[in-house]
From TrEMBL, chains A, B:
One Pfam family matching this protein: tRNA-synt_2
Name of the protein this chain belongs to: Aspartate--tRNA ligase
Species assigned in the record: Gramella jeungdoensis
Gene responsible for this protein: aspS
Localization per Swiss-Prot or TrEMBL: Cytoplasm
InterPro entries cross-referenced by the UniProt entry: Aa-tRNA-synt_II (IPR004364), aa-tRNA-synth_II (IPR006195), aa-tRNA-synth_II/BPL/LPL (IPR045864), Asp-tRNA-ligase_1 (IPR004524), Asp-tRNA-ligase_1_N (IPR047089), Asp/Asn-tRNA-synth_IIb (IPR002312), AspRS_core (IPR047090), GAD-like_sf (IPR004115)
Gene3D superfamilies for the chain: Bira Bifunctional Protein, Domain 2, GAD-like domain, Nucleic acid-binding proteins
Task performed by this protein: Catalyzes the attachment of L-aspartate to tRNA(Asp) in a two-step reaction: L-aspartate is first activated by ATP to form Asp-AMP and then transferred to the acceptor end of tRNA(Asp).
Amino acid sequence: MYRTHSNGELRLANVGQEVTLAGWVQKSRDKGFMIWVDLRDRYGITQLIFDEDRTPKEMVEKAKTLGREFVIQVKGEVIERVSKNKNIPTGEVEILVKELTVLNASLIPPFTIEDETDGGDELRMKYRYLDIRRNPVKNNLIFRSKVAIETRKYLSDQDFIEVETPVLIKSTPEGARDFVVPSRMNEGQFYALPQSPQTFKQLLMVGGMDKYFQIVKCFRDEDLRADRQPEFTQIDCEMAFVEQEDILNTFEGLTRHLLKVVNGVEVAEFPRMTYDEAIKKYGNDKPDIRFGMEFGELNEVAQHKDFGVFNNAELVVGIAVPDGASYTRKEIDKLIEWVKRPQVGALGMVYVKCNEDGSFKSSVDKFYNEEDLAKWAEATGAIPGDLICVLSGVADKVRAQLSALRMELATRLGLRDPKVFAPLWVVDFPLLEWDEESKRYHAMHHPFTSPKPEDMSLLDTDPGKVRANAYDLVLNGNEIGGGSIRIHDKATQALMLGHLGFTPEQAKDQFGFLMNAFEYGAPPHGGIAFGLDRLVAILGGQETIRDFIAFPKNNSGRDVMIDAPSKIDDEQLKELNLKLDL
Amino acid sequence: MYRTHSNGELRLANVGQEVTLAGWVQKSRDKGFMIWVDLRDRYGITQLIFDEDRTPKEMVEKAKTLGREFVIQVKGEVIERVSKNKNIPTGEVEILVKELTVLNASLIPPFTIEDETDGGDELRMKYRYLDIRRNPVKNNLIFRSKVAIETRKYLSDQDFIEVETPVLIKSTPEGARDFVVPSRMNEGQFYALPQSPQTFKQLLMVGGMDKYFQIVKCFRDEDLRADRQPEFTQIDCEMAFVEQEDILNTFEGLTRHLLKVVNGVEVAEFPRMTYDEAIKKYGNDKPDIRFGMEFGELNEVAQHKDFGVFNNAELVVGIAVPDGASYTRKEIDKLIEWVKRPQVGALGMVYVKCNEDGSFKSSVDKFYNEEDLAKWAEATGAIPGDLICVLSGVADKVRAQLSALRMELATRLGLRDPKVFAPLWVVDFPLLEWDEESKRYHAMHHPFTSPKPEDMSLLDTDPGKVRANAYDLVLNGNEIGGGSIRIHDKATQALMLGHLGFTPEQAKDQFGFLMNAFEYGAPPHGGIAFGLDRLVAILGGQETIRDFIAFPKNNSGRDVMIDAPSKIDDEQLKELNLKLDL
């Protein structure tokens, strides 16, 4: 037995006991006649003391040779500390060491194993096993594990069955690019790695499993944007004999449970908002509603004056920035620069200062009088002391621009407290979205989402207007889950695939197995999938998902630590009947 | 809301309530004026009654059109049944239907959805979603889910953290063949799918996670033997600061917990046996110890007589078959045929009948007298009434043959009751095994297993004799888990890789990341991995793992239902810089 206790365990009540501890040398202080060592493991830190009077001489000598991150085992007596450390749970005791064994030495680590490390990102990734020793990363992994446990607990208690679905599946053309896996046993054929277990979970519903979930790895061979991994984890769920309302209630329950047990936060019933409303009010289908700053549309009150920019715009829209009237000219100029950055893309910004005395001062005073501007204030909800920021242009674009500005200002104003949680259901998503590049409609969610029955008639006449039984769960401005009520009959599924540009042959070839299944008594069903990586990061109050993943990949999809992907040898290629075509 | 209750829920106490149910038509009986329908869902069956006197006429008419597996919704009143069915929990009530809605029709299913189905294997696989509706498969999936939940619960309670390790990793040459995944972002390079998260869990130990587990999919691109899947699931575990004893205790605890909560069986402390002893006593490193029939070695008492076959054999070994003395000549001849089948491969079999009167009758009476045969009986533990079966030849082969015979006879004698559980630790496995084909030693477990310190000196002189700190957990003749104490220092790891035929360059190229990690304070550590598929099947009292997998693949690695793997298009190949070389 290497240890009798962990390093987070001993208290005053243990004084007098002989114990064996093991762990890493966090640091040591050598006062000549006395040496203190902080011994660390996952559970905490315990102070060791080597004392010339009370510790065998050779142990003291050996203690002097200990470097940071050496792995040691000590035997000794728990004694009360003279100067207590109130900051750690073991701070009232220390171990008077009688025996010291070095279990493994360590080179000097390339960065400090401290909460605030001196290691840069790349170095920390290369030595990820050292990075994981640091409390922030270690605690993130423990936190992630807890979220997964509590998710499983909640869903199991609700009669959900966790079923494993295959990882080696068939490639389908819809959605993002598939990773493919050549099959040695089936010449010239490939498996794909799943982007989600979508069709399998639907088959489980056809199979009568009634309530399914799985915490499951999924894969997407996309060019990686910042903080997006080629492999990611989903909480994947599906229920039979349900309407949208049943699903929203169930997964509102799950989210509320997680917020309660993981964050200790009680949240009221989640508000709901239609997609159209979210776009209109926040310019965004995943609005952060921790704060207001709702959009005020100004076409009525700002057009038909002499200001051509506005008159020619499809949409004039503004937000009120709390206490923004105090911004200096320079600060406002910087804000204008900010919205004109290519990442945002606005051509300019009009502003109105709402002075404390009720008067207004705007950048377009030439065109608008006080009465006009008072109407702007009313439309944006601005009160004296606020700054109204107004953008104009093509509706879609200007909404996205103003949304970016709204988020940026809220961040600057400290309105995006990661300890505050504001969940929101966004419902009634459009079924289809037009893709300029391919000149056809794509499924906004996926091809299995059902249209709202009352909108079915629009499918032929005005496809873009058809609403879907689809919903997203938004938390603090992030989409953390999305789902839909599915199509469960062959005819509707065939119709939908037709609208997505599939010929009947293609539809049969790709999704025939699912449509066949629908002919044998498929129940009404629907579901949702949560992105676990993002969910964990948000609940954990952090922006980046990478620090909640033990071994993440960098933006080229590379594991910098183990050097994957790598070349495989010619023999393997030959066995797979593949040739490289470089 | 599609239903107020499930079909397994209603009892006499609910009589008088108006309820809404939904589910599948299991069967219907049409008596003209009355129609009974068994309505099924995951939770059970509820009987519906359509009655000309009490049900609206058009509902009765509609009920007459219902076919098997139609999905329906009914509203009605819970009434007490006249003739009660004591076999099902809902058997005291039925629903007097007032409203009937057909939610989805069904074609006639290709096989019956009954516990005993008329569907053959292939058909059931092709329509797996229908097969899952059958109780045996459905209950297996629920059982599997329960084993996973209880595993997670037990390990979490013991402070294990579940950490997800990557699926897209680096290909390594040791072990079985890897599935590979071409990387579009890194030309000419490939990921591999993990055969186990071995190196990652060791890095987590170096990273101080202390206790890790994961229930995780692993992959092996092997030719598939019967009931072996290319993707399989492991309960993967690792602990730091442990000796073998700590690991055995921890995972004996897990197994005991599972047997208790999943099977309701209390098992005494698990016996332990060395690998050598298992081979000697049972001819097998995963002996089924639900029954005796231990091997008796007969070289001493059977050689040096006039029987040349035995005199020339490396090993003469027998087992006592309980009550086998009563076998007829014909039955014994059949047994001899059985051991001579190519799958077993014995050249013949000598037998001795131990008569009830204490006398013996053998097939080699010419060479051995009663006194000789009494010694055979003593060595094999045979008592009057038993049959002694004796094989001879090269030790390895003859042990395997006798082991096969032992298992076959035990099956025939009904000694392998799937409701009886006999776990066993097999310890002290050899570190290396000689491979004739490649003319070199291979790691019996894997290259990270540590040799026993006391055997280290044999590494150069007699490598085959070196024992490892390796152990298997055996349950009813199946290896359900295996693990080892790992090497945790660079020098020993390099030495081991050298013995496995790696040049220092190859060792560095393949496992440099791990050996580097060992230089930064790697703690002593070890672990174990359980094959979840096999474990679940054995706990579930069944032989085949396939029926515990929702969507298994056939022996060609194909998913017969969705037709995977399949061809990918030329554009995808081009993007991956691959050419097919058929």
